[in-house]
Amino acid sequence: MNDGAAIIPELDELESEIIALFVRVADMLNLPRSVGEIYGLLFISTDPLCLDDCRVRLNISKGSTSQGLKILRSFGAIRAVYIPGDRKDYYVAETSLRKIAAGFAKEQIQPHVASGEDRLLRIRELLDDCESGNKAELTEKVELLENWQYRAGKTLPLLLKLIGK
């Protein structure tokens, strides 16, 4: 009684362990669990997979799958491949750690460093208007933050060059 649907194999032990490894990495990077699951599945897969393949194999929602694929694409951890005669988007995992790290830094870290500059300008304005009795100590703390921001601003571009932006 086959209704024409393809039978999707359950994850084997090797696939499950690879996926679990990438789930831990995603957790460490404060990314959604689905990001680690999808990357792990694509990493161990010998064939490109579409959104539905990932969703069914991992037993996750379409929304989580779509969001995970979007995040992975945004920092270059996966790429779309063309399958002749099929209108779906298929994906494969990028296996260059350099490309993934550079993409992650560019998408996830660089914007925070840039927004920190604006926040520090506002903090400096507030400090200038501050009439606290411990303004000297507060000024020291703000200068420390500015120093950290300066270092992050100088280190991140160097890091991106090292990992091959």
TrEMBL record:
PANTHER family: HTH-TYPE TRANSCRIPTIONAL REGULATOR MJ1563-RELATED. Keywords: DNA-binding, Transcription, Transcription regulation. Belongs to the GbsR family. Transmembrane segments: none annotated. The keyword Transcription regulation applies. It comes from the Bacteria. This is HTH-type transcriptional regulator. Signal peptide: none annotated.
